[in-house]
């Protein structure tokens, strides 16, 4: 169980490991609270020789601290406003790779989940092929009823990872609470809400049945798409700590030479990556939020295959509209509309001027549009937006964090496939289709139809509402015909309280009496 002392000791150890690996030398001192200069000077003295200024050391430090810190680092890579642009860029290089745990431990976890030995669940279970902070993946084989063998991917949760995460999470919350109490900027950044989002994401990622459900939902949403798919789930061999899916025979998206040798069109794959993400986010409000190259394959049919759906993002209609109108505003250079969307969504406080905010948006957008297509960066755009929103008191929107993170990752993947990819031109068809479908005349007709339907349902319920009103009126008439009567016990208690002069007890008892009277009335 986490305690304040335990949190302090764990944070002290984390601080020492980060200082030892030279991480604090990468932090912009201007982002730190006043009076922290001696701490940074001490951190430089602790740093291991040769680590100062090396961006790779943060990955070493976080890996030493364990799975929770690796996930925290990946999460903070999306928040240059919190950790500074330099450290955010360093964190983008962080790879979610951990040493594998032993084969016999994996087999014991499988046996515990299915109440039978691992080799009773699978005909064969190979050694771990990839190990990350939450789980590791094995290749397995299943013998079918007709005697044929089917290959499967078997994902097994790390032992004790849930307990470790709960303990580390307590430390993260303690830092977030301290940051919000000590700094107005910490409150604007909503540090506690940031940790809340991380906690929800990690909790879902550590129940592999939820990942299986996410795969099934994404498969259902994309069943009509010809260029994107996800592996099917073997539900008979899936539990809380074990997930079994079909084995994907494909080429990883970061194997550019392999893709070229197989005859795949790399710029076309870059377009598919970008448009698939936008289509899922806008059309479905449900998207793969961990689209790094290790989770993306190209199958022999040229389709993009996404695996590892442990981290998924959801957007409500309000957030989808916000995303679509922001992107469309930048595509069409309608800066005033971009500003209006922020205000309509309630993301910028109403006391600010829309025109001033539009001017700030223009300062971001015009330089981007004046550059060649291959120099336009959504990651850069998001960084600049963070700076502007700070000027206009815009608080962190936890529901948009995963979206922002995924946009940056998807851009990096698409750029690797096609360095000359025009982001706006690629995004425009998907965004325009959503705008026309959801904000155009057809959408208005649907809204009218929904309104008529709601009115019809209300009219259907009207007789019952009238009857209920008549019953309430009859009860009130019956209760008040001879006056309201309080129970003798209540009156005696009120008298005793008045005799003792206990004003607060008297008030409480009168409140109780009033509630009893209300109960009689209704």
Describe this structure in words.
InterPro entries: ABC1_dom, Kinase-like_dom_sf, UbiB, UbiB_kinase. Pathway: Cofactor biosynthesis; ubiquinone biosynthesis [regulation]. Keywords: Cell inner membrane, Cell membrane, Membrane, Transmembrane, Transmembrane helix, Ubiquinone, Ubiquinone biosynthesis. Helices cover 61% and strands 9% of the residues. The protein is an alpha+beta fold and 522 residues long. Among the domains are: 4-98 and 163-202, no CATH class; 249-439, no CATH class; 484-522. Strand 1 and strand 2 (135-143) form a beta hairpin.
Give short descriptive properties of this protein.
alpha+beta, four-stranded antiparallel β-sheet, four-stranded mixed β-sheet
Calculate the mean pLDDT score and round it.
Answer: 80
Radius of gyration, taken over Cα atoms and rounded to an integer in Å: 29 Å
Distance linking N and C termini: 47 Å
Poorly predicted tracts of residues:
516-522
The total strand number stands at 10
Number of H/I helices: 23
The oligomerization state is single chain
Determine the strand fraction and express it as a percent band.
Answer: 5-15%
User: Which strand order do you get reading across the main beta sheet?
Assistant: 1-2-3-5
**Biggest β-sheet strands, sense, barrel:** 4 strands, antiparallel
Binned, the helix content reads: 55-70%
Using the alpha-carbon principal axes, give the shape: globular
Structural class: alpha+beta
Pathway: Cofactor biosynthesis; ubiquinone biosynthesis [regulation]
Pfam family, one: ABC1
Organism: Ancylobacter tetraedralis
Family: Belongs to the protein kinase superfamily. ADCK protein kinase family.
């Amino acid at each position: 169980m986490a305690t304040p002392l335990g949190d302090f000791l764990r944070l002290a150890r984390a601080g020492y490991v980060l200082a030892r690996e030279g991480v604090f030398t990468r932090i912009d001192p201007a982002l730190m609270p006043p009076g922290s200069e001696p701490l940074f000077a001490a951190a430089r003295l602790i740093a291991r020789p040769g680590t100062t200024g090396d961006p790779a050391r943060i990955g070493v430090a976080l890996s030493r601290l364990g799975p929770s810190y690796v996930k925290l680092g990946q999460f903070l890579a999306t928040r240059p406003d919190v950790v500074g642009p330099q450290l955010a860029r360093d964190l983008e290089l962080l790879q979610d790779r951990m040493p594998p745990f032993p084969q016999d431990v994996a087999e014991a976890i499988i046996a515990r989940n299915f109440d039978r030995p691992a080799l009773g669940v699978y005909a064969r279970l190979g050694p771990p092929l990839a190990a990350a902070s939450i789980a590791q993946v094995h290749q397995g084989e299943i013998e079918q009823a007709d005697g044929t063998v089917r290959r499967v991917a078997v994902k097994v949760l790390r032992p004790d990872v849930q307990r470790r995460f709960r303990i580390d999470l307590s430390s993260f919350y303690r830092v977030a609470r301290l940051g919000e109490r000590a700094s107005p900027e910490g409150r604007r950044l909503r540090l506690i809400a940031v940790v809340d989002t991380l906690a929800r994401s990690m909790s879902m990622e550590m129940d592999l049945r939820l990942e299986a459900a996410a795969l099934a939902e994404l498969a259902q949403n994309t069943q009509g798409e010809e260029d994107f798919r996800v592996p099917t789930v073997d539900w008979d061999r899936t539990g809380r700590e074990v997930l079994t899916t079909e084995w994907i025979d494909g080429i990883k998206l970061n194997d550019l030479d392999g893709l070229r040798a197989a005859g795949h069109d790399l710029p076309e794959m870059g377009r598919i990556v970008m448009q698939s993400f936008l289509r899922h986010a806008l059309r479905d409000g449900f998207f793969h939020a961990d689209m790094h190259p290790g989770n993306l394959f190209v199958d022999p049919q040229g389709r993009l295959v996404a695996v590892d759906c442990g981290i998924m993002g959801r957007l409500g209609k309000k957030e989808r509209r916000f995303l679509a109108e922001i992107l469309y505003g930048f595509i069409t250079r309608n800066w005033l509309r971009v500003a209006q969307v922020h205000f309509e969504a309630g993301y910028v406080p109403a006391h600010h001027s829309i025109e001033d905010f539009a001017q700030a948006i223009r300062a971001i957008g015009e330089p981007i549009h004046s550059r060649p297509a291959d120099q336009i960066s959504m990651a850069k755009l998001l960084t600049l937006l963070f700076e502007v929103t700070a000027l206009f008191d815009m608080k962190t929107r936890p529901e948009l964090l995963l979206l922002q993170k995924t946009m940056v990752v998807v851009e990096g993947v698409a750029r690797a496939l096609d360095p000359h990819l025009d982001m706006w031109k690629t995004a425009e068809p998907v965004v325009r289709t959503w705008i026309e479908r959801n904000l155009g005349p057809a959408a208005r007709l649907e809204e009218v139809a929904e309104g008529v339907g709601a009115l019809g349902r209300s009219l259907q319920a009207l007789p019952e509402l009238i009857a209920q009103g008549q019953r309430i009126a009859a009860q009130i008439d019956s209760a008040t015909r001879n006056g309201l009567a309080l129970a003798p016990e209540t009156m005696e208690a009120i008298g005793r309280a008045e005799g003792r002069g206990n004003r607060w007890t008297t008030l409480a008892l009168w409140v109780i009496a009033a509630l009893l009277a209300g109960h009689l009335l209704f």
